[in-house]
């Protein structure tokens, strides 16, 4: 399918269109000094291609958050979340094909680079089944792929540069089409800029930047002066998605606007010097309390997860029906089965799994799970042992007995209890380690020793080296089995 995006007009007034499908395969580099119209160009591209392709915008100044209203982009305020949450959002974005704006406003330069590196790397590392086509727009790309380290840590610079290089060099096979914009080509790493096949070069004045722009456009050095004379909002375009020969493109109008704009002159106040002096000398009045918080509201991570998965406005959705206790327990059990079925869940922190649990319950139609974090931790321990129905009367005594142990040990206790109750062989140290959330067999042996010191286990090892564990208070005993 061929989709052409109207960018504007050429010097003859004819429409100039960008081939979106070709752009996905060949990438785009936009260059121009501050005030040349780079952000205006990117906004025109995003508005005209919205609804045709997934869009992911890395926005260091928060200028593109206004796309959220008319075009439905999900805004992620990076300053409100941890690096792990940012990476999780990126994975969900690729899975659910949501268009988002990652606003880095409020972060220092090093924090912006660290966050962008984590986000882009997670987009790049998505599983193969989620390699859907997406435009990845990075404004002020020289911040994330600098030629020199500057004042940031070398580790952060390398991580950010590596993520940008992967986006531009290897992203095409994963469906990621990089669209990067920079104020200065000389400050942008060459291995990042060189991977673009389409160019839109705006006004610039420094000789080194004009020379590099002329080289990329296939122009002679003496023709580079034309770049200095470009008016604001005009760009020289070249590339398979734009034109086979350099053309001048005057970017068309946009529907949305940035939160910030260029300063405009306003008339000075009309007052005599003496009056103005008295005015400045007046004592300051106490500041009135603000009627609203001008800062963006922090959206909880699980709520933002929900927006990515189901980006429809909440106001248009019907309220979720109330669930009975039996229906809620069934949702808990199904959700816990899904979580423990993931082999990586054994080594993920319990608070992170709790957030995942809350999101899955909401997706299943349960408005707000009644379990808190400690209650979830105990249910998770039971689920890891294969006990999903904690209301089962046959497990009541075992659960009461296991209640004497810390929450993280309950799963190992119930795993042994389940094997003893069903007359199966004693679980191995490796099985107990997975339930306990560790890979250390030494910790498992210390765990068994602790439970035995509480008079809950009695361990026997026969002459062949096979181990069996009895639970005297329940009258259950496992069959002998190798501990390894």
Automatic annotation (TrEMBL):
InterPro entries: ATPase_Atu1862_pred, HerA-like, HerA_central, P-loop_NTPase. One of its GO terms (molecular function) is ATP binding. Pfam families: DUF87 (PF01935). Residues 10-77 form the Helicase HerA central domain. The keyword Nucleotide-binding applies. Keywords: ATP-binding, Nucleotide-binding. It comes from the Bacteria. PANTHER family: HELICASE MJ1565-RELATED (PTHR42957:SF1). This is ATP-binding protein. The lineage of its organism: Bacteria, Pseudomonadati, Pseudomonadota, Alphaproteobacteria, Sphingomonadales.
């Amino acid at each position: 399918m061929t989709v052409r995006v109207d960018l504007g007009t050429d010097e003859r007034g004819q429409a100039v269109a960008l081939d979106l499908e070709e752009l996905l395969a060949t990438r785009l580099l936009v260059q121009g000094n501050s005030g040349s119209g780079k952000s205006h160009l990117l906004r025109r591209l995003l508005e005209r291609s919205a609804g045709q392709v997934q869009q992911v915008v890395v926005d260091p100044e928060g200028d593109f958050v206004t796309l959220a209203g008319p075009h439905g982009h999900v805004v992620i305020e990076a300053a409100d979340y941890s690096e792990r949450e940012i990476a999780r959002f990126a994975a969900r974005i690729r899975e659910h094909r949501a268009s988002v704006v990652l606003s880095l406003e409020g972060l220092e330069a090093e924090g912006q680079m660290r966050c962008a590196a984590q986000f882009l790397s997670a987009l790049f590392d998505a599983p193969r089944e989620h390699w859907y086509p997406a435009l990845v727009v990075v404004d002020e790309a020289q911040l994330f792929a600098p030629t020199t380290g500057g004042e940031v840590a070398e580790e952060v610079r390398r991580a950010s540069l590596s993520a940008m290089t992967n986006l531009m060099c290897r992203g095409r096979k994963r469906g990621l089409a990089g669209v990067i914009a920079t104020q200065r080509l000389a400050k942008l790493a060459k291995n990042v800029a060189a991977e673009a096949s389409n160019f839109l070069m705006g006004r610039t004045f420094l000789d080194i930047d004009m020379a590099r722009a002329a080289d990329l456009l296939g122009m002679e050095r003496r023709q580079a002066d034309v770049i200095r004379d470009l008016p604001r909002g005009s760009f020289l375009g070249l590339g398979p998605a734009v034109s086979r020969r350099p053309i001048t493109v005057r970017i068309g109008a946009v529907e949305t606007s940035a939160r910030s704009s260029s300063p405009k002159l306003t008339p000075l106040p009309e007052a005599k010097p003496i009056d103005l002096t008295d005015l400045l000398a007046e004592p300051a009045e106490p500041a009135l309390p603000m009627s609203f918080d001008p800062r963006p509201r922090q959206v909880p991570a699980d709520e933002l997860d929900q927006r990515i998965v189901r980006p429809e406005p909440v106001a248009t959705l019907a309220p979720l029906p109330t669930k009975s206790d039996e229906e809620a327990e069934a949702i808990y059990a199904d959700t816990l089965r899904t979580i423990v079925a993931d082999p990586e869940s054994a080594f993920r922190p319990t608070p992170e799994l709790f957030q995942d649990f809350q999101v899955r319950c909401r997706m299943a139609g349960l408005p707000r799970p009644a379990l808190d974090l400690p209650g979830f931790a105990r249910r998770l321990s039971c689920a890891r042992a294969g006990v999903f129905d904690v209301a089962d009367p046959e497990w009541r005594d075992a659960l009461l007995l296991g209640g004497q142990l810390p929450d993280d040990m309950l799963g190992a206790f119930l795993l042994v209890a389940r094997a003893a109750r069903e007359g199966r062989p004693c679980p191995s140290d490796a099985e107990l380690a997975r339930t306990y959330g560790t890979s250390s067999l030494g910790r498992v042996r210390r765990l068994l020793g602790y439970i035995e010191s509480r008079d809950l286990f009695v361990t026997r090892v026969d002459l062949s080296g096979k181990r069996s564990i009895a639970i005297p208070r329940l009258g259950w005993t496992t069959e002998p089995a190798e501990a390894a």
